[in-house]
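I wish you would study the pair of lines that follows with an eye to the fold:

===
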Amino acid sequence: MDKYLLLAEASRKATESEIRIVNEYEEKLSLTEDNRTSIKVSCSNGVCLRVIKKKRMGFSSCGNLDSSLVEKAYFSSRYGPKANFSFPRGCMSDVEVYDKKKHDLQELVEKGDEMREVMDRARSVSYVILIQKKLLCISLLNTNGLDCTYKKSTYGAVVWAGVSDNSCGIYNVGWSCFLNRIDFPLLVESALDKITTAQKRCKVHGVTSAIFSPGAVQTLLYILFKVINHGGKSKDRGTVKRNNRVANEQFSLYDDGTLAFAPGSSPIDDEGISTQRTALVEKGIVGGFIYDLKTAYDTGSRPTGNGFGGLLSMPTTLPTNLVIGLGDMSIDEMLRDMRAGVIIDGANIRGQNAIGDFLISFDCGFRVENGEIAGRLESGVAYANIYELLSDIRGVGNELFQADRGLRVSLLTPLVYFGSLNVLDGSMQP
């Protein structure tokens, strides 16, 4: 069935209708230290229909343009969420997200073999190398005049490496819409440098200064972002409001869906709103929130181009590329200033509450003594309050790193240096 015929049929039953068509092709390559290589190639197609009938939303999806979508969406609108808004005419941002150069599977295999060759030089190191390619073609049209199509490519490389007893795991990532913008050699060389440093074990327990690497900053942002954007979901709830201070003036955070080559970027969101740059925190002060169409209407705000959905779900509010503002400190300056402390290289949330208290576990960390990295910490835990921690920032790095672990949302962040953190090293536990 033609997409315009489907839209016309839907418009006869609903006040407004919207169609999203997604075509996806993906290649995944996995290499391990025991010389095993696995390759997975997949493709998928999907059509999503969203309708507004009597100010309620209905939704249906399937693998092709099928007329049954209309009846299913119409039926679900009887029990769907309220929709006191209209679908937009739409306007796409000018952002580079598609690599026109063709990169076949053989090229990915060759890059994987080159990375494996470097990793094999190290002894007693277990590792996994993942290389991924994803091509998207997305079409959006609605009954208010929107009719657009864009293509997007995303390439990624992940290196996980562990010392002989696997008590410390190193995780490096690189993602881009353009394959040639990923520094594959740097990913493996950096991992080996960290593994070399991690051979010596160190201990730490108590309150100490801490540098958070991009992987650890990512965890902090999940905690902060959840609390911050909760305040933008309705007019009368949320623990954080616009113009509240949540950090000291060294900390700024943006959501930017217009960054060239970034995996979270796109010219338009899944509702037809052009993407944009939104200041979430500027110099420690909450500047704004991100919205999809529904949350924007519910709060009397404007949509920010952050409405994204899957093939089985309606769009909801999601970030694009989270970017932390640069500071002016190098890693060497941070180490000299702290003299003694820890570097947290990766962390996972173990618990948090509504007032910002949290507990994280870290798989890998490093001990700093006399301004130099002395060795690795055993896996352990750290706890703090997110607002108190962000108010105790002593320095922000002068270089951006990637910390994202997927194709949907990306994070660009410098190193962040905190004055104090409560740390319990796993080696100190009985």
Q: What stands out?
A: Residues 200-430 form one domain. The mean pLDDT is 89. The longest strand covers residues 16-32.
